[in-house]
């Protein structure tokens, strides 16, 4: 009789373990199938002397680049800066030179190249400008006026990090692309003869990233520009 009771007790414990295991597996399955929160995509408004446009940013694809860009936005880095490079059918580039005297703006250290994030240099998408060195991007950005696959990465070379998309006001950029350009001031070519000024960039959409305070800035190298691969 004692053996039967022990057997019954052991079977009961085993059954409880199986039941508990089933509950845990069901709970795990429920957790894995639960809807995940949507990624937060901050939006910024670029205010220029030729009109405004809005850019949506993708920190889920380019977290380092977006965080650094928003740091510059919160510090007022882009206030009264130039779109100093305008090439119709290619891109508009700016954010690195002061409108008042075309002086190079100081920057934080360059960021890691995130061009392998799956976002492509297509019309209306925003990328981080850099020199030929792949990890040299800092505050300057560009907007593609057309599809520019030559700026995307390949297995044998780095590309240019895409981190945002114009969601409103692309017509403003098309208008900017029509301004007369050439050698102007400190710029040897492709610069608007009459300044196209970024008056300010402000955070307007969801998920604003707050900064504790402005960081220490250091002088930036001159000549940061988007370069087509050889």
Explained architecture:
The chain is α+β, with helices and mostly antiparallel strands. The chain contains 3 helices and 10 strands. The strands form 2 sheets. The protein has an 8-stranded antiparallel β-barrel with strand order 1-2-7-5-6-4-3-10. The chain has a two-stranded antiparallel ribbon with strand order 8-9. The longest helix is centred in the first third of the chain and has 32 residues.
Question: Tags for this entry?
Answer:
eight-stranded antiparallel beta barrel; two-stranded antiparallel ribbon; 3 helices; 230 residues; 23% helix
Write the layout of secondary structure elements.
Layout: H1 2-33, E1 43-48, E2 51-57, H2 63-75, E3 81-87, E4 91-98, E5 125-128, E6 141-144, E7 162-168, H3 170-176, E8 181-184, E9 187-192, E10 197-203
Antiparallel strand pairs: 1-2, 1-10, 2-7, 3-4, 3-10, 4-6, 5-6, 5-7, 8-9
Please report the total strand number as a whole number.
10
Main beta-sheet strand count, sense and barrel state: 8 strands, antiparallel, barrel
Report strand %: 25-35%
CATH class category of the largest domain: Mainly Beta
Radius of gyration: 26 Å
Compute the number of helices: 3
CATH superfamily of the largest domain: Cyclophilin-like
TL;DR of this structure?
With 230 residues, the protein is of the alpha+beta class.
């Amino acid at each position: 009789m004692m053996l039967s009771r022990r057997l019954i007790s052991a079977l009961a414990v085993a059954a409880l373990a199986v039941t508990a295991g089933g509950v845990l597996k069901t709970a795990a399955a429920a957790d894995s199938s639960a809807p995940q929160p949507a990624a937060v995509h901050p939006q910024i408004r670029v205010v220029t002397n030729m009109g405004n446009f809005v850019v949506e940013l993708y920190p889920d694809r380019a977290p380092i680049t977006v965080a650094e860009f928003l740091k510059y936005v919160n510090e007022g880095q882009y206030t009264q800066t130039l779109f100093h490079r305008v090439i119709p059918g290619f891109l508009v580039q700016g954010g690195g030179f002061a409108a008042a005297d075309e002086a190079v703006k100081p920057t934080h250290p360059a960021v890691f190249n995130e061009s392998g994030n799956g976002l492509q240099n297509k019309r209306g998408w925003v990328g981080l400008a850099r020199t030929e060195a792949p990890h040299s991007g800092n505050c300057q950005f560009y907007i593609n006026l057309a599809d520019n696959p030559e700026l995307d990465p390949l297995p044998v070379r780095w590309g240019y990090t895409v981190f945002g998309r114009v969601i409103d006001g692309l017509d403003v950029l098309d208008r900017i692309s029509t301004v007369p350009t050439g050698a102007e001031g400190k710029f040897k070519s492709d610069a608007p003869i009459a300044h196209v000024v970024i008056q300010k960039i402000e955070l307007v959409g969801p998920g604003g990233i707050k900064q504790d305070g402005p960081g220490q800035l250091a002088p930036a190298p001159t000549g940061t520009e988007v370069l087509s691969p050889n």
